[in-house]
Structures are given as C-alpha cells and as structure tokens.
Amino acid sequence: MLFAKKRGYHCLVLFIQGEKPHPYLIISPSEVAADVLSTMKKLESSPLNSEDYLGSLAPFAIVQEIQGLSKIQIHNDSLSWSEPILYTDYAKKVGDRLQGFMSEDENVNEDLIYFIGEFTMMQDNGFLAPF
Q1: What is the pTM of this model?
Q2: Which of 14, 18, 51, 96 is most buried, judged by most C-beta within 10 A?
C-alpha cells in the first residue's frame, strides 16, 4: 500500500483477542492521529470493547502507534487482516454496529451515545478543521 501524498501517516496497531487472535492496522493522517488515538483508548477501556458490541473487531488492545509512515508494503495479502484500513472506514464499521444497538435497546447507556457521536465524526472526517 503506497500513499499518494507526501505527508505523514500514523498506524495504530490493535490486537484483536477473538477466536482467531490477530493484529488490526488503522491508518490515519498525522493531523487527526491524536484524536483517533484518544477515541480508541477510550473505547479500549469501555465496556463496549466486547464481541457482543463490536463483533469481530473486539475485544481489542492497542499495542503500538507507529508515527510518520509514508509507505506500507504487504508481503502476505492472503491474510484477511494484513491490509491496513483507513480510519474513516474503521469508524464506519464501528459506528454502524453501535448504531444498531440504539434502535434495539430502550435503555441506551451514555457510552453508546458518546461513541456513536465520536465514530460518526471520525467517519465524516470531522476531526479535520474545515479551514
């Protein structure tokens, strides 16, 4: 995977502790990396970090943050998790899952509402200032 623009990217490495444990790579531009990391740390310590809520994306632990990437080369693309995912795509996956619980559960907890907002903002690239 090559990045077209000459700017720095961050890679957040999650370790998914599910049935088949594996790493999961989330790529974000340097400009939003701090916001993405902050949100992910909060989700990591939340009760929502479970297979019940996030499916195959959980439970996870953040194991690394790699800063200043300009290139990622994949040597084994036969593994479904080897391809890094852009943070907006990851946010859409998580946001859609959590949104499903809003309509199902009458007793919506504050964590669920907070993370739906955060991941919607992340998905819409709302961490970047419009000016």
Answers
A1: 0.86
A2: 14
